[in-house]
Write a structure and sequence with these properties.
Layout lengths: L1 H20 L6 H18 L4 H24 L7 H23 L14 E4 L2 E4 H23 L1 H11 L1 H6 L4 H27 L5 H15 L5 H21 L5 H17 L23 H17 L3 H26 L7 H17 L5 H20 L7 H20 L2 H4 L5 E2 L4 E2 L2 E2 L6 H24 L1 H11 L1 H6 L4 H24 L4 E2 L1 H4 L4 H12 L6 H6 L11 H4 L3 H18 L4 H17 L40 E10 L2 E11 L4 E5 L6 H9 L6 E6 L2 E2 L5 H6 L2 E3 L12 H7 L8 H7 L8 H10 L14 H13 L5 E5 L7 H18 L2 E5 L3 H7 L2 E6 L2 E6 L1 H5 L2 H6 L32
Parallel strand pairs: 9-14, 9-15, 12-13, 13-14
Antiparallel strand pairs: 1-2, 3-6, 4-5, 7-8, 7-10, 10-11, 15-16
Helix pairs in contact: 1-5, 1-8, 1-9, 1-10, 2-3, 2-4, 2-8, 2-9, 3-8, 4-23, 4-26, 5-6, 6-8, 9-10, 9-11, 9-16, 10-11, 11-16, 12-18, 13-18, 13-21, 13-23, 14-15, 14-16, 14-21, 15-21, 18-19, 18-31, 19-21, 19-30, 30-33, 32-33, 34-35
Length: 921
């Protein structure tokens, strides 16, 4: 119970900060440590009484929490969630470094203020301080629940999580609410640290490692429910205690709870985000172009220096920098391109090193084959780690992968029976293709060896970025719902991204492991190093190929480590300075140093040309591009005359959709024929978008069937329905805003053969914009904007691009969800004419959901009216506009009520209109 209470106490502060600003605070453990050190210093060093020392320590750390928001988090409020999480890592580094300078790294024993006398509970003897911890955790949970449910602060915090703008319109300051929550979170961290260190001891980093478990507990409570967090913490502590008693296998007690929480989160998750899910801002990405004519000569010169000029210390730095750059490239693929935040990269590196090291030491494999086996083994484990990503995303996925990495550490890397003994795995000096590449005897040769692998890894990642697989990753990263609507297989894309990322990390891990004659997996591949890896990738530029090179210079053992040979006594200050530099770099440009350099080069180039810079946030200035910059004229692709999509009937029968107890769509029947526009109208909340969601596979239907021609679709996921010829647009557009119009259209290209991803690793395929999309752009007058970033177009132009992107899949059926929303009358009329042309000229079956009655009545062949999910009318626009039920339900006019004549009731032979439902009272 005591261990579970410890987890619960730490997790409560994490929940408070997350509810206040949506950030998982990785500095939480450092704040707890700071509170414990402050309390111990006041009691032991200053002779204070325990009570005022507790109050002062808690208040001091609470004030620091408020300062963190004002100085760091507030300036980053518009940055990507990833950048804000990385900022908390920089804060953690600063606090830990400062604490080391003040109090040293030696462990301390702290005398607690809770009673410790043993208590008898039946046949059990329990230390009373454990019961006190349990009681404090429960009371604190009750107080926090009451505060966040009943007080103005709690209600405002909940409103802030829902809609910051709406909260500000009510007179509340979102910054004030965030400051108060950061202060409360800091105070809770300090209190937890003071209560915990009498059990664990006080040392730099101890509480930080405990926070990993606390994050998993907070995840169990969805970072929102204090009672679920407490229950999760207590349950986790009980499970670990019981496993320690009955299971002798090392690491199982640490691994099993993480696996249980993983199972819970996967069961809660969804394969596709819900409609209305927030699309997060992402870091910018580069073009993937590399100027090899410049890079290769520079690499050759650097290799020559390593072989014949540089001393051993410099070659060691070069080796380490190349290895870290490869690891950072793995983050670029997974997080920068595919948008999956994983904190398991060093675990993947350790897996690769484990396979290669054990094969060399135990099976006596040659180093070349062992290296390839390590890459393949890491890729396979990476695919397993990707399984949670199929149903979770964002910070949930980050915590899960970090927990899985901790489980691997506990079960595998810390187990001497698996790693060749307590001293680790002893490997001999490696040779590659008959050439000795011993990092100890020939450091220059090994440095060149790692440099060659870095160049190869960079070429692979560049090929992925420029090829179809990279565009699919970027589509998934930007908007999973939109990607699925274009026929992109989210499962395959995520699995391939994890596999490639893990393979790169496995390569880096193997190269790192063989820098020594003995591989110590538990020390070298600590899972917390994954946090540092992601941090360096973001600081360098997680979307750019030059980012890993820049980020690796900041790593421990990188170029900065050379300073320690000359600065001597101030070495202890370097880590603190590094943390400050991290924060300053993020505040300067949250997209990383590569992005900042790109903008600087663009400004200099523009000044040299004496014209304003183009300012394309995607272009990587450190890399040369053979293709024109965004906005430059380009020869358009010409579609073939026979590439127009073939029409087919859309038949929907008995469609029923429920959200809990609410029936959103009730046994609806629809038929849309080729060359026809069927309007689907009704009042707000009538179920129109639910119909499109259910037909396109984004919402599960409890009954009914959907087919195109004779092809049934109801059992197919969204992306397979798109490939079958049914595609859609969205009310909120869902464009890939940081990609060009061309890249948006290319993302919809259905060429996804099983070997397409492997081909991109070697030579990315050149894709032409699909002919239907090019024809649509020509019809829409958007050809000149083909290479502009989508977010820079006008709203009306983005509406048309969304339709063109849907047409790029070559559909037979097109579902349009309020395409004229937000347009003025002139633009709406123009869009309506274009939609009519699509049906007439391309024989598309078009289902149009629209509130603009002028558009509906002017272009639709037939109109279906729904209200509360039921069809109440159907016919031509003229017929529907005169229907009394429609005028009552949709146009707001009262429906005349006819009182039946009891003396002359209608006879049984009078037929009822099957297209008009009975009116509602």
């Amino acid at each position: 119970m005591g261990v579970g209470a410890v987890y619960a106490l730490l997790a409560q502060g994490l929940v408070v900060v997350y509810r206040g600003c949506g950030v998982v605070n990785f500095a939480h453990g450092a704040l707890a440590m700071l509170g414990a050190f402050t309390y111990d210093e006041l009691v032991r060093g200053q002779g204070w009484a325990q009570a005022p020392a507790v109050v002062t320590a808690v208040a001091s750390v609470a004030a620091l929490g408020a300062l963190i928001h004002l100085a760091v988090m507030r300036p980053l409020r518009t940055a990507s969630p990833l950048a804000r999480v990385i900022a908390t890592l920089g804060i953690m580094i600063i606090i830990q470094s400062a604490a080391t300078l003040v109090w040293g790294a030696s462990p301390r024993t702290v005398r607690g203020f809770l009673p410790r006398s043993p208590l008898r509970l039946g046949s059990l003897t329990v230390a009373s301080d454990r019961l006190w911890l349990l009681g404090i955790a429960v009371v604190l949970t009750a107080v926090l629940t009451l505060v966040f449910r009943r007080t103005q602060l709690g209600l405002a915090t909940r409103a802030l999580a829902e809609n910051q703008t709406a909260l500000a319109s009510l007179g509340w300051s979102p910054d004030l609410i965030a400051v108060l929550n950061w202060a409360l979170g800091g105070g809770l961290a300090a209190l937890a640290g003071i209560l915990i260190v009498p059990l664990t001891g006080l040392q730099i980093g101890t509480l930080t490692s405990l926070v990993i478990v606390a994050m998993a507990v907070a995840l169990f409570g969805s970072f929102s429910s204090f009672w679920l967090v407490t229950a999760g913490g207590l349950g986790l502590g009980i499970i670990q205690s019981e496993l320690n008693r009955y299971v002798t296998q090392q690491g199982v007690s640490q691994a099993v709870p993480f696996l249980l929480i993983l199972a819970v989160m996967v069961a809660r998750g969804r394969g596709l985000p819900l409609r209305g899910s927030l699309v997060e801002h992402r870091p910018t990405v580069g073009t993937g172009k590399v100027r090899w004519r410049v890079v290769l000569p520079l690499a050759a010169a650097l290799a020559a220096l390593a072989l014949w000029v540089l001393p051993a210390a410099w070659n060691a730095v070069m080796t380490y920098s190349c290895v870290i750059a490869i690891l950072l490239l793995s983050v670029v693929v997974l997080t920068g391109y595919c948008g999956q935040l994983s904190l398991a990269q060093f675990t993947f590196a350790g897996i690769g090193a484990y396979f290669s090291g054990r094969l060399v030491a135990a099976a006596h494999w040659p180093f070349e084959l062992a290296l390839l086996a390590g890459i393949a083994g890491a890729a396979a484990v990476g695919t397993l780690f990707a399984l949670p990503a199929l149903r979770t995303r964002g910070v949930n996925l980050a915590v899960i992968t970090l927990g899985l990495g901790s489980a691997v550490q506990a079960v595998l890397f810390n187990n001497a029976s698996f790693t060749g003994g307590a001293a680790g795995t002893t490997v001999g000096p490696p040779t590659f293709l008959g050439i000795g590449v011993d990092a100890i005897a020939s450091p220059g040769r090994y440095a060149v060896f790692t440099l060659c692998w870095l160049l190869l890894a960079t070429a692979v990642v560049a090929g992925v970025r420029r090829g179809p697989s990279g565009r699919r990753m970027l589509a998934v990263r930007t908007n999973e719902r939109a990607a699925a609507s274009l026929g992109i297989d989210l499962v395959r894309t995520k699995l391939s991204a994890f596999a490639l990322s893990a393979a790169l990390a496995g390569l880096g891990g193997t190269l790192l492991a063989f820098t020594a004659s003995t591989i110590t997996y538990d020390v070298t591949f600590d899972p917390t190093n994954s946090i540092t890896t992601v941090t360096l990738a973001v600081l360098g530029g997680v979307g750019y190929l030059t980012g890993p090179l820049l980020g690796s210079t900041l790593s421990t053992g990188g170029v900065g480590s050379l300073l320690t040979n000359y600065l001597g006594a101030i070495e202890a200050w370097l880590t603190l300075a590094g943390g400050l530099i991290f924060i300053l770099l993020l505040l300067q440009d949250a997209n990383g140093m590569a992005s900042h350099n790109q903008h600087a080069v663009a400004r200099l180039a523009a000044k040299a040309r004496r014209r304003p810079p183009a300012g394309d946030a995607r272009a990587d200035a450190a890399q040369a591009a053979d293709e024109p910059a965004p906005g430059a004229p380009r020869q358009p692709d010409t579609p073939a005359a026979d590439d127009e999509p073939a029409g087919a009937d859309l038949v929907v029968e008995g469609l029923t959709v429920r959200y809990g107890a609410v029936v959103a769509v009730d046994t609806l029947d629809l038929v849309v024929r080729p060359g026809e526009v069927l309007g689907l109208i009704g009042p707000n909340g009538a179920g129109k978008t639910s119909v499109i969601d259910a037909v396109s596979g984004f919402t599960g239907a409890v009954a009914g069937s959907v087919r195109i021609g004779h092809t049934p679709l109801e059992n197919l996921p969204a992306h397979r329905r798109a490939r079958a010829g049914l595609t859609r647009t969205f009310q909120s557009l869902e464009l890939f805003g940081d990609l060009t119009v061309r890249e948006n259209l290319l993302a919809a290209d259905g060429g996804q053969g099983r070997l397409a991803g492997l081909r991109d690793l070697v030579r990315p395929a050149h894709q032409r914009v699909p002919a239907p999309a090019m024809a649509a752009l020509r019809e829409f007058g958007l050809l000149e904007h083909l290479d502009e970033v989508a977010d820079r177009l006008s709203f009306g132009q983005r509406r048309l691009v969304a339709i063109a992107r849907a047409l790029a899949t070559g559909p037979a059926v097109l579902l349009l969800d309020e395409p004229a929303a937000g347009l003025d009358d002139t633009a709406s009329a123009h869009l309506g004419r274009l939609v009519r042309q699509l049906a007439d000229n391309w024989r598309l079956a078009v289902l149009l959901v629209e509130h603009d009655m002028a558009v509906v009545m002017s272009i639709c062949d037939r109109v279906t009216v729904v209200d509360f999910g039921r069809r109440i009318a159907h016919g031509t626009p003229a017929q529907v506009s005169q229907d009394p039920a429609v005028r009552a339900a949709y146009l707001g006019e009262p429906e005349p009520v006819t009182v039946p004549d009891e003396a002359n009731p209608p006879g049984p032979g009078v037929p009822a209109d099957p297209n008009v439902a009975p009116s509602r009272a």
